[in-house]
Write a structure and sequence with these properties.
- With 202 residues, the chain is an alpha+beta fold.
- It has 3 domains: 54 residues, no CATH class; 70 residues, Chitinase A, domain 3 (Roll); 55 residues, Thrombin, subunit H (Beta Barrel).
- The protein is 25% helix and 28% strand.
- The strands form 2 sheets. Strands 1, 2, 3, 4 and 9 form a 5-stranded antiparallel β-sheet that branches.
- A hairpin with a 5-residue loop joins strand 7 and strand 8.
């Protein structure tokens, strides 16, 4: 009975491999992946260039990730989770820019690597329209008013729905108290070093 059971599953696995070779997008990790692990434990060696690909857990569109990452630009490191708890995020949700998500695609669980992203790839080019004067009265209405501003200050503003915030960097202060803010991302238009350690993939 054991021999029949083993041969039956060997045939089933070989059928799946032929299907994968002809239609690689048909199958996903799941029962088939567990079957491969089982056959490996049983010592059954069925060779196929797709076996390694199927068994690996890699980053794909929609993956839920646990990872450490560091972002740095010409002025130094901006974000670094390696010194704290790892981040958890879902690809495609907007938590990372499209350029950064694309760099992660295909990485295996456990990998630690560094990408050097060209200017504009991580956070787009700098947009002059994102530099805007804000009157002192409006700053007070937004709850962002303070007595003194100096260039380089970063001010948090509430989003229109009130559920989040966005940041603006002070560029200039007028005599009447109006402030010129730059609402571009600090790394927009700059080369970015993106270091990542993929801890878990779901």
């Amino acid at each position: 009975m054991a021999a029949f059971w083993g041969e039956s599953h060997r045939s089933f696995l070989q059928w799946h491999i032929r299907l994968m070779e002809s239609e690689p997008n048909t199958l996903r990790m799941g029962w088939f992946g567990l079957s491969l692990a089982f056959f490996e434990l049983r010592g059954m060696r069925v060779q196929s260039p797709f076996l390694k690909l199927i068994c690996m857990t890699t980053v794909q569109a929609g993956s839920f990730l646990t990872l450490h990452y560091r972002l740095a630009g010409p002025q130094g490191t901006l974000i670094n989770t390696f010194e704290d708890k790892p981040a958890t995020l879902s690809l495609g949700s907007g938590e990372l820019s499209p350029g950064m998500e694309q760099a992660l695609m295909g990485l295996e669980e456990g990998v630690r690597t560094t990408f050097e992203l060209a200017p504009g790839v991580a956070f787009g080019e700098r947009n002059p329209d994102m530099q805007q004067w804000v009157a002192r009265k409006l700053l007070a209405q937004l709850g962002a008013s303070q007595e003194h501003y100096v260039p380089g200050d970063v001010v948090q503003f509430p989003t229109p729905d009130g559920h989040g915030t966005y940041a603006g960097a002070v560029m200039q202060v007028a005599e009447d108290g109006a402030v010129l803010f730059d609402f571009n991302h600090p790394l927009a238009g700059h080369p970015v070093t993106f270091e990542v350690h993929v801890i878990g993939i779901l």
